[in-house]
Amino acid sequence: PSRSTGLSRWQVGDRLLQARLEGRSIEDWVAFERGLGTLPSGALGDQAIAKIAGQVGALVDRAAELGVGGGRGSHEPVDVRLANGTRVVGTVPLSLVTGGPGPALVTFSSAKPSHELRAWLDLMTLSLARPEMHWRSVVIARKKEGAQASDYMLAPADTRPPSPEDCLSLAMDLYRRGMDEPLPLFPRLSEQLTRNAKANVADKWRSSAGSPVPGDGESDAAVLVYGQCEVGEILDLPARPDDPGRPSEIGR
């Protein structure tokens, strides 16, 4: 029930966020949600509206500060071929109108490593497709009070290797390996180790008592592959000779 309530609250907040980003008013959103029956009646409804509207307002304000434009934005076509022959074809939505072009993810969700990975992949793809442009990639997510934002800018390849092609080749290699075998890559644990290889990551593998966010080792997939093991057993997994990448290649 609590998970359902959280999901419903997120859906309501996300609809308001998208409405505000597209230039619609809170009043229009309230009328829409009341029609759906998703808001409590009376004073409880007014309290819910005020709380969600405040959280969304912080996200919208931060988006404006970082140059996110209103409306749905344009789409940048990409068609690039990697050194191993892999062809990457598609479009990347562009939402930044000031401070440099690029994609933006503005979400009512709390910040997650997957958001950062998405922004990084979009940035690498655009930088490979059109290297003459100074692309940016922005992530704006919710925290308890206000908005949490990340802003990524690619440095010139000759001063900060690896190149966008190297990064995409590595990501594609990992994707293909992951289709054939389970990889010891985890959303919270791997992200923390990337930032600090000596960090204490026990709480990323198993959540502490009362934490609403489960650890990576508590997911059904991790238990299926690794059983009820502790984080030390994961950290002690030996590297294989054919493992892709090098430690110097880790990072943004």
What does this structure look like?
45% of the residues lie in helices and 15% in strands. The protein has nine helices and five strands. It has a three-stranded mixed beta sheet with strand order 3-4-5. It has a two-stranded antiparallel sheet with strand order 1-2. β4 and β5 form a beta hairpin. α1 packs across α3. The chain is globular, with a radius of gyration of 21 Å.
Describe the secondary-structure layout:
Layout: H1 2-21, H2 26-36, H3 42-65, E1 74-81, E2 87-94, E3 104-110, H4 113-129, E4 136-142, E5 147-153, H5 164-180, H6 187-195, H7 202-205, H8 220-226, H9 231-235
Helix pairs in contact: 1-3, 4-5
Q: What is the general shape?
A: globular
- Share of residues in strands: 5-15%
Q: Helix/strand-derived class?
A: alpha+beta
Query: Which strand order spans the largest sheet, edge to edge or round the barrel?
Result: 3-4-5
The end-to-end distance, rounded to whole angstroms, is: 38 Å
Number of helical runs? 9
